[in-house]
Design a protein that fits this description.
homodimer; 428 residues; alpha/beta; Dihydrodipicolinate Reductase, domain 2; 3 domains; six-stranded parallel beta sheet; 33% helix
């Protein structure tokens, strides 16, 4: 790494972005005597900011002033999105700067290109803040868990959707009702697509699984379902069966080394830690050998929690600046090879299915026959209530079943005149 | 650090102890091509061991052969206890070796002496495995959470007691009954004192709080109560009030920088993550700024989980051997100063109290008066059942109260002819 020591002996930082996280980083770094923020790029230089000790003279409207500043050793990118973030980071690396970023979309879509480019220039890209906010997860995987072969990740990586699902569960309210509340409170954006359709969680699990499996996962191979179709009736039924419904980002590596990476709602046993992760809290469960299973939970977003991770990465780089010309394991970010992926149709899952049967007579028999023909064993089948009009609400939990077979069975059950209200996978 | 590279380029390890954890470490290290275990000291060289690829020729009955072997770069101490472990480690350091240890008792009683000695010799002592087994906690505090001021730790650090309390809760069984079961299953030792009286948890919280607060905590200043007096009736009452009873190791740093470190049973709200940590699982909740609260949970003991932490520490040292003559932050272990401690009598707590009143007439009034005179506000008071013989069972939950005042009130309540069955602190 760089041997140049600055005139006043301080590590010089450039910030790109001074929104919620940027403000938290700036305030947190104030207490570190050996670190100095020397330039900050913002979109609107005239905006009033609630940062008491902010030195206005270091603010610029041009982020290239940050990445081209020869004095700066570490560039912290906090604007998100692909452009201009990608070009800014590459320019910074070319100019000899290390990178700390919270940009989950950029990492998921161009992580490998970025990491390779950084290694070619003997620079590092650290990204603890991009995954699960303040929870220490990236650095522990790189350091103290480095002796493990991790084969399973199950995580709650999106605070907005976890808030909505928690509220639906507590209040027995519908998705739309709670979304409106969440938007009013600022927990969900006006256009909530990125969160509620699972894109945000998919970005994060892509990068996390790539690191944990030491194989590149491509974002386009990640199966994704959001929470918009989860009904309060499903919440109730899940509770009765001993489960909570959570949006789980998961990644599994099978014995042949093939990866299965997804984001979708999942019934999680109340006995598992993830079932008790509520509101905007995030959590990551890792399973590997020799460690077994560990779960890390905490704030997945917010000014200060995210700043904790950004500052942790800055301190890790600062500790090594000028001391070694070698990248420590915790600094490395390139990965060995592409992962071979398992198609979602070839995965095996347990399923919760909620069916509204038009004619309750013989319907259990029909469902049973269709399932048997598609090699589907049932763990339980409950006819929850029958109304006067002859229809029936039926809740089914299956044993482990091929996704392909399950989808075929659903088609046949619907062709028989029944309505399948929900199909949600169950944690195994 | 050492610049000497071995003939075959491998990092040479010496193991002291080949019990449960040692076996796990040996088996795990087999898959690392750049690391070689060259000597292992055991108590009984003739013992049959279930390690398929064990090279018997490297086994010795004399641990000084390990610490005096000039080829060995890292000594892994896994025998526990003060002697001969302390002298062995000091000899190894004097001989230029780095140390990885799981010895919680030694760290709690002589940690500072050990860390100072190591720094004087420019060697490191890593101890991830000594606290909470496989859970990554020490290294994350030293690295990615290094930007935080941690002010609060609440943790379940002893698997045996958590197993007993979980079973008592699930089965409504007594402490003695479950202890016997646990002993039969190997979850508790024949002499369970170290676990059930809280010594093991006290060792661990001493070292953990010292690291997190960057101030030395002395083991003799840690307040300690075990679980032997927890009754199944208390478990039931706690459940009814929305709590679980856990043996919590806690450490708090107040605004004046004074520390309050303890181990005792505690009523923990069912809404908190710790309430759902069951059986032999351990967990650590840390609160600090800027991160907020994070909770890490997982296996607190066992062959492979503990090996994960030992191997993580070995890899951290191995990564730096020969690359730098400077100790990275994650390697440092000395602490700034002694902590100023708060005496348990001066702490403020909420309390759960279970009282058996000899005469139910007027007893609520008497308790209320005694509490008022001792500056104790009550959150709730429930007369749970009155039997034919005129006695009453009364459950009280207080607001925040000085320990000194609470103890005085208990004395007066007992002098009035009532029996105080339980006094358990409640999580705030």
């Amino acid at each position: 790494m760089d041997k140049n020591i600055n005139k006043n002996g301080k590590i010089k930082i450039g910030l790109i972005g001074l929104g919620t996280v940027g403000s938290g980083v700036y305030k947190t770094l104030e207490s570190f005597k050996n670190i100095e923020v020397v330039k900050i790029a913002v979109r609107n230089v005239n905006k009033k900011r609630n940062i008491p000790n902010l030195d206005e003279s270091i603010i610029t409207g041009d982020p290239y002033e940050v990445v081209n500043d020869p004095e700066i050793q570490i560039v912290v990118e906090l604007i998100g999105g692909l452009n201009p973030a990608f070009d800014l980071i590459k320019t910074a690396i070319k100019n000899g700067k290390h990178i700390v970023t919270a940009n989950k979309e950029l990492l998921a879509k161009h992580g490998e290109e970025l990491f390779t480019f950084a290694e070619e220039h003997n620079k590092v890209v650290l990204y603890e803040a991009a995954i699960a906010g303040g929870i220490p997860i990236i650095m522990p995987i790189k350091t103290i868990l480095a002796g493990n072969k991790i084969t399973r990740i199950e995580a709650i990586l999106n605070g907005t959707t976890n808030y909505i699902l928690t509220k639906m569960d507590m209040q027995g309210a519908s998705y739309e009702q709670v979304l409106n509340e969440a938007q009013a409170l600022g927990y969900a954006e006006a256009d909530p697509t990125g969160d509620v359709e699972g894109f945000d969680a998919a970005y994060k699990i892509t990068t996390l699984a790539t690191l944990a499996f030491r194989k590149r996962i491509k974002i386009e191979d990640v199966y994704r379902e959001g929470i918009t179709k989860v009904r309060s009736e499903d919440m109730q039924a899940a509770n009765d069966l001993g489960y909570k419904i959570k949006l789980i980002a998961s990644a599994y590596l099978d014995e042949q080394g093939r990866a299965d990476v997804r984001v979708h709602p999942m019934l999680v046993s109340k006995k598992s830690t993830l079932a008790h992760i509520d509101y905007v809290t995030n959590a990551v469960s890792l399973t590997g050998h020799p460690v077994g299973s560990v779960t890390l939970s905490g704030p997945g977003a917010g000014e200060f929690p995210t700043a904790s991770s950004v500052v942790g990465d800055i301190l890790a780089i600062a500790a090594e600046l000028g001391t070694t010309d070698y990248l420590l394991p915790m600094m490395r970010c390139k990965h060995e090879s592409d992962a071979e992926m398992i198609d979602i149709l070839d995965t095996e899952n347990k399923y919760y299915i909620s069916i509204n049967a038009q004619n309750n007579k013989g319907v259990i028999g029909t469902i049973g026959t269709i399932c048997a023909q598609n090699d589907i064993s049932l763990a339980s089948i409950v006819q929850r209530c029958v109304s006067d009009d002859n229809t029936a609400d039926i809740t089914v939990i299956t044993e482990l079943v091929k996704e392909k077979n399950m989808r075929n069975a659903i088609k046949l059950i619907e062709q028989d005149g029944n309505k399948v209200n929900s199909l949600i996978r169950v944690q195994v």
